[in-house]
């Protein structure tokens, strides 16, 4: 965890140290999220991951012709937002943890058409609504992980597909707490499809 935050701080300080010779612009975006809880990277334990929404704003700071720093701030619905499903095929279940976060993805944008996104993300829990299957309180109100994605600019609009994998444990379930049994450290996992708009047009290079 300490290494993760050191990398995040270094990324921010590095971009702040760059000279403002770049093209900077603001934008807003929103869209649908396929959310769930996982017990490992790309391992989703949520049955039929539900849809949530996300709304946010971004600032794009061009560092070079092919690299830009693209921090965002976003309201995001996450967690397992479906009704409990206990005892279905293969013993599937849902935890009913409806989570709402204020997220700050600190992404770097590479290339142009299409462009690729990668960087750390931190989040703060705004609200939680538990359903019928209660595996306990969250271990922390703070969440952190890695966000990657791909996008395409149709100036002044843009479209993005991103994936977030949480690395911080949300819930540590004791033996027998879940219908499937066993002990799991559960984390956030989110797929997002976004459509956005730049408030300032990109200047043409001379």
From TrEMBL:
PROSITE patterns: PROKAR_LIPOPROTEIN (PS51257)
UniProt protein name: Porin family protein
Pfam families, per database record: OMP_b-brl_2
Chain ranges of the Outer membrane protein beta-barrel domain: 22-171
Species per Swiss-Prot/TrEMBL record: Dokdonia ponticola
Superkingdom field: Bacteria
